[in-house]
Specification:
Number of helices: 14
Helix content: 25-40%
Shape: elongated
Number of strands: 0
Mean pLDDT: 81
Largest sheet: none
CATH architecture of the domain at 218-327: Orthogonal Bundle
Low-confidence stretches: 196-218
CATH superfamily of the domain at 218-327: Cytochrome c-like domain
Strand content: under 5%
Structural class: mainly alpha
Order of helices and strands: HHHHHHHHHHHHHH
Distance between the termini: 152 Å
Length: 335
């Protein structure tokens, strides 16, 4: 039987195919290849950031009312290379800053102001000082002051309080903004309970009880002072030591020495330059007047130089006045 060349070639290709397939089949039987398992990794969801609630903005007048000259003196250390502040102090790179609050801008005698500041009209109000200290070059472009400014509003308020303490008869502090409360929903209807019960009690007794509840009057003030501890008052008085000494013969600071003042004439300490607001208050430092003044210095004598906001707690007021009484020779009796 004759086999053609084409048939031989086809037979050879078929044999090769079977050999390749057979080799692959036998190899799979002899060698087991395990497919890798896919491990699912649980990915935690990204944390949800809590919304940032900005702090409520406090108006400038409120900050200034709470500011203290003691804190301002610390901030003012950044200014001493260019400015003196004591009365009669020399000019340096910048002018002496004693007695400037409420005074005309660029009005210090003997200092060569830039044309930019010399061209500004008006006086150094609290608001203008705040704007200038925040950004001197922005407030008066072209002036020679190279200081970048105080960006922190509380620091500016403290420095202005310090400038006020070093100013004779500064203008009154600006009034803080009054926040108008939001309208509340109408109260639920009230069922008429009928006519009130009439209690047969003398009107004078009712008035006396009301007065006792309110705690007003000189009698309650003196009784609280009598019950207060001078030691507690000394601890409260620590808030005052930056501006006042109390030891006998102690020097005046921002405020006068407070030794031996209870029952003595108001604004009568020798050697201290009182504001006109206090000079115009007649009479003596009675317990009632001390109470009213320490509770609200601005309300007692509007326009005085004291920047302290006052002591609002009755127990602290009574204690500090008891401490002043202890440091007074022959104080008036508590009646």
């Amino acid at each position: 039987m004759n086999v053609s060349l084409l048939e031989r070639l086809g037979l050879g290709a078929l044999v090769c195919a079977w050999l390749i397939y057979g080799s692959n089949f036998i190899g799979n039987l002899l060698v087991q290849v395990d497919e890798p398992e896919v491990v699912a990794v649980r990915v935690a969801p990204p944390p949800v950031a809590e919304p940032v609630v900005p702090e409520p903005e406090v108006d400038f007048a409120t900050l200034l009312a709470a500011a203290t000259p003691d804190a301002g003196a610390r901030v003012y250390r950044r200014c001493v290379a260019c400015h003196t502040i004591e009365e009669g102090g020399p000019h340096r790179v910048g002018p002496n800053l004693h007695n400037i609050v409420g005074k005309d801008i660029a009005a210090k005698e003997g200092f060569n102001y830039s044309g930019v500041l010399a061209g500004l009209e008006g006086s150094w109000t609290h608001e203008r000082l705040d704007a200038f200290l925040e950004n001197p070059s922005g407030y008066a472009p072209g002036n020679r002051m190279t200081f970048a400014g105080l960006r922190n509003a509380r620091e500016r308020a403290d420095v202005i309080a310090y400038l006020r303490a070093n100013t004779d008869d500064p203008p009154p502090l600006p009034e803080p903004e009054v926040v108008t409360p939001t309208a509340e929903p109408d109260p639920p209807s009230i069922v008429d309970p009928g006519p009130p019960e009439v209690i047969d009690e003398p009107a004078t007794e009712v008035m006396e009880e009301a007065a006792a509840v309110e705690g007003g009057g000189a009698g309650s003030i003196t009784s609280m002072i009598a019950a207060a501890s001078a030691d507690d008052g000394q601890r409260v008085y620590r808030r005052c030591v930056a501006c006042h000494t109390i030891d006998e013969g102690g020097p005046h600071r921002v405020g006068p020495n407070l030794h031996n003042i209870v029952g003595k004439d108001i604004a009568s300490k020798d050697g201290y330059n009182y504001s006109n607001a206090l000079k115009n208050v007649e009479g003596e430092w009675t317990y009632e007047k001390l109470w009213d003044f320490i509770h609200d210095p601005r309300g007692f004598a509007p326009g005085n130089k004291m920047t302290f906001a006052g002591i609002k707690r009755d127990d602290e007021l009574a204690a500090v006045i008891a401490y002043l009484k202890e440091n007074t020779e022959s104080p008036p009796p508590l009646e």
